[in-house]
Please model this.
Amino acid sequence: MYPAAFEYVAVGSFAEASEQLARAAGEGKLLSGGCSLIPLMKLRLAEPRLLIDLNRVPGAAGIIAQAGEIRIGALAREADVEASALLAASWPILVDTSAVIADPLVRNMGTIGGNIAHADPANDHPATMLALGARFLLSGAAGTREVAAADFFQDLFATALGEDEVLTEIRIAAPPPGTGSAYLKYERQVGDFAVAAVAAVVVVADGRIRSARLALTNAGPVPLRAQSAEVALAGLRVDDGAGMDEAAALAGDGIQPWADLRGGTAYKVDLVRGLAGRAVRRAVARALGHHELSAAAAHGGPR
Amino acid sequence: MTVTPARQHRITVTVNGESHLAAVEPRLLLVHFLREDLGLTGTHVGCDTTSCGACTVTLDGRPIKSCTMFAVQADGGEITTIEGLADPDGTLHPLQQAFWDEHGLQCGYCTPGMLMAALPLLDLDERPTDAEIRTQISGNLCRCTGYANIVRAIASATQRAHAERAPDG
Ligand SMILES: Cc1cc2nc3c(=O)[nH]c(=O)nc-3n(C[C@@H](O)[C@H](O)[C@H](O)COP(=O)(O)OP(=O)(O)OC[C@H]3O[C@@H](n4cnc5c(N)ncnc54)[C@H](O)[C@@H]3O)c2cc1C
Ligand code: FES
Ligand code: FES
Model:
């Protein structure tokens, strides 16, 4: 399958990319890993006149700890997120998330920035970003601004990115003591998008859950926070497994995942209820330092 | 919309150790560049939708799906295809030999992609488990073998590579 003809430019900086976007006046597209964009171009569902390749922008793929934050360059490949010792030690939910995206070959190309900017409700990073309270750096002709994940995802494939803006970096606060995090996805087969998935971040102190943040993948047009579950989880004892399951199951209240080949609405709601409990338990186990438990749980059952 | 012929880009890529200078239209996919411009037809097109892995090659040492990358993006890169595995004298690469010995193929359509995807496993410090082998080839589909012999072949090649690297042999 051949895409429609286009002009190609490999830019050397994000500023140059946004100049090229402006020049193309709505007919330009940024290229990162290409794993979502190139298939769309081959089907001619996307026909950009100008393709602006970000892959040669220097220093755009770093994963570092700086100024009390974790900073991830937009061009970081999923394979590098998955293999990052810094992230495994700070926010293992990011390792979980990258590890269940597509397959290892796609993960060698696909980038975290592309996954977020694409804003497919089935993309896995958006819910994780919401649960983490991540902030995105967007850079355009008017300068650089910071947008919270909660304000970034606006609708199906629609984001806060302006016409000449590029997502350049993802910023996440370093985890406070007692933090645990996990992403749990249920897929029909390896490489498929989620039937449903749950991102969970908890902070534990004195044997209790102090706070929890939960977000859902593919349960609506944008990633959704599960606030009633978060409220119910706060204050529970960390050894109250049944209580955690019951509270987390509230994540299924009020959502309307669409019926498709991956299942009907009622089935997906049930799935979210079950996954939410397991994701919270795994996050709590990690907060308590039970790494063997979470590693064992990673094999078998939902990824 | 007026269609203007797209400008050709000059690229330099090293394929299987040999440097190539070529002029490519931006929309030329890497897999078509390899198969049609360079005549390296061992890299196959299966699904053409980024799903099957038949088109897998390594770019700067990492296996990728060449149906989902433009040739122009590979400028300056180093590519290895299935044709680059065996020695020039025809001696098979250990991974190829293991697929032969363990009957890791039937029709052979998926085989070049399987080999290129499995290649990084030979360089790991620790021998991979069968589960790790299955994960590594989870982007590669085989319609014939049922995978068991493929996993066995890769396990045997990684075992050999590991034994040869071990200090006391
Ligand atoms: C077989 C297969 C299975 C997959 N399974 C999953 C899955 O399970 N879960 C999942 O989440 N994803 C999945 N994906 C998609 C994922 O792999 C893509 O990599 C990701 O969605 C897009 O990232 P990319 O770097 O490839 O972006 P590209 O394809 O290069 O770009 C995607 C879009 O984002 C825009 N864009 C890219 N970078 C930026 C930037 N820095 N700033 C602003 N806009 C930008 C592009 O213009 C384009 O519109 C799958 C893909 C394939 C082929
Ligand atoms: S032909 Fe490239 S993945 Fe199938
Ligand atoms: S051997 Fe026939 S597809 Fe794998």
